[in-house]
């Protein structure tokens, strides 16, 4: 298949979409797209911005692919590239990728829309943030200490030479110890320094996309996505335990990528050998690579993390207060940061700096262990409902609209974090829901936390309000 044939498919697809959607909608989303090049069963399209790309993907990707499939008689994957980005070294790169100043050797006649030299980005390609990585999860924001030194060195080694150093890599350790942060730091660094395609996904999302592709009878769309990438980061692979189908798929993805020297990084909440019902052949694959673990930070690192976090937030927290927090919370970094957030919120709201006494008083419950506080699930429901302008009935009822589902899931998550109640007990109070529904909600929120940097603070606010409410009642 030549490049030219695919250009024809693309143009015809655009003509059909223009007819189907009408001029107004079409021109809003399609006139700024440009055919860049083709690969095997693949078309690469230039987009003006990540926002534009995400919208096109969400709204039109399926329609485009259906039409391409009809025209080509087979699945053709779509890839989007920021128009300012340099094309990857593919044999069929058309001249549009040259991007030199003053001239382009652009192919005449075949391009359906704007010529690339008109785009302002072409002179000075500017790389935005990666859409699925948190921009604050960088190496700069990651404190290195004895507990994680080896892991950080390996992670940096990977970012220097993806696919060559330490491949595959497994980062493991308990909750809140910085696995996701470190993994995304690798992604962010590679994204910033090179022209690589990077996919970050949670294991749950990997499974969901797989299931979806089967449902829609488009197994190739899944394969093309995960097997045509330079770097694949899969977070929380303990989620794959006891799920044989997806382990099989992971095995094939793994082999394809590794044989073409593409970088794989995984995280897991335990050493890989402790996973339950995990395929033997996958296990043996992991042995080929490197495993690094993260342990809870020591006192010095805890202080350093708090200092850095306060500094990034522009908050003035004294060394004495940092000492109090570091001495009292040793479990993990997430709890440490939560405690600091409570104090920063307090000082912002009250307009006064935090003293050691205030810190001790405010964090009393946290120091005892938040889960021991005498908190009811109903209190959390009440606070969450108020916060989102809903009723208790919305929290416990069956309505499925997104403005209710999300607060409900968030409330379940907070209930699990702040109390000792089991998912079964939480489910009962949330309108007699099954414990698996509660677990799903919690996983959902955890997944969103990984890519939404504002959710952390929403959760912190909720927790703070819950504590305030329960200390009054
Ligand atoms: P995990 O994925 O292991 O559960 P996360 O990566 O989500 O943990 O980390 C929890 C929180 O702690 C995040 O806010 C993260 O930025 C922070 N964190 C973890 N380790 C460090 C570290 N070494 N330096 C700075 N912040 C850290
Ligand atoms: Mg994580």
Could you explain how this protein is built, in words?
The chain is of the alpha/beta class and 473 residues long. It folds into four domains: 7-108, 2-Layer Sandwich (GMP Synthetase, Chain A, domain 3), CATH 3.30.300.180; 149-294, P-loop containing nucleotide triphosphate hydrolases (Rossmann fold); 299-367, Helicase, Ruva Protein, domain 3 (Orthogonal Bundle), CATH 1.10.8; 377-472, Chromosomal Replication Initiator Protein Dnaa, Chain: A (Orthogonal Bundle), CATH 1.10.1750. Helix content is 53%, strand content 9%. The protein has helices at residues 3-21, 23-29, 50-72, 149-160, 179-193, 203-215, 219-227, 244-259, 280-287, 299-313, 319-328, 333-350, 356-362, 364-368, 377-388, 392-396, 402-418, 423-429, 435-451, 455-472; strands at residues 34-39, 42-47, 77-82, 169-172, 198-202, 231-235, 263-268, 290-293. A hairpin with a 2-residue loop joins strand 1 (34-39) and strand 2. Helix 15 (377-388) packs across helix 20 (455-472). Mean pLDDT is 84; it is low at 85-125. The site of adenosine-5'-diphosphate has 16 residues, from helix 5 and helix 12.
Summarize the structure.
With 473 residues, the chain is of the alpha/beta class.
